[in-house]
Design a protein that fits this description.
This protein is an alpha+beta fold. It is built from four helices and seven strands. Helix content is 27%, strand content 34%.
């Protein structure tokens, strides 16, 4: 076996174990709402989502909301104010969705909440998206 081949093989197996074996799928609104435990806002625009299911579940979603509805969604899901300049891991967890940030965008604010009784973690990033609008990036996963 070539030097380093074992390391690559172990890393590959770990990646499969963590992400599961089913790959990415497009979850329905109802599936996302059931996973989050709250309703998605009816005012959403530009909605896109994907999910990885296997041993664990990871859901990514991004959408636009008017500022007041974005604030209400943050309160309902996170339960605390977003922290300006804080990326709760959104940039590192994104792929497969258009317009997903690779780094913290200007004016961004984020937070996360662990829901231990349900075995879930929610991470949210809010970014200015024009006058009166916010683009929300959400990841939710099992822990």
């Amino acid at each position: 076996m070539a030097p380093g081949a074992w390391t690559v093989s172990v890393a590959s197996l770990f990646a499969v174990a963590v992400t599961g074996c089913t790959g990415e799928v497009a979850p329905t609104h109802a599936e996302i709402e059931a996973f989050l435990g709250i309703m998605l806002p009816a005012e959403m625009q530009g909605f896109a989502a994907n999910a990885e299911r296997g041993i664990n579940t990871l859901i990514r979603a991004r959408f636009l909301l008017p500022e007041t509805q974005a604030e209400a969604f943050v309160r309902a899901l996170i339960g605390q104010p977003l922290v300006p300049g804080h990326d709760p891991g959104i940039a590192a967890a994104g792929h497969g969705l258009p317009d997903w940030p690779e780094a913290l965008p200007p004016g961004a604010a984020g937070a996360q909440r662990d829901d231990w009784p349900r075995g879930r973690t929610y991470r949210l990033l809010s970014v200015p998206a024009g006058p009166g609008w916010r683009r929300l990036y959400l990841i939710a996963f099992t822990v």
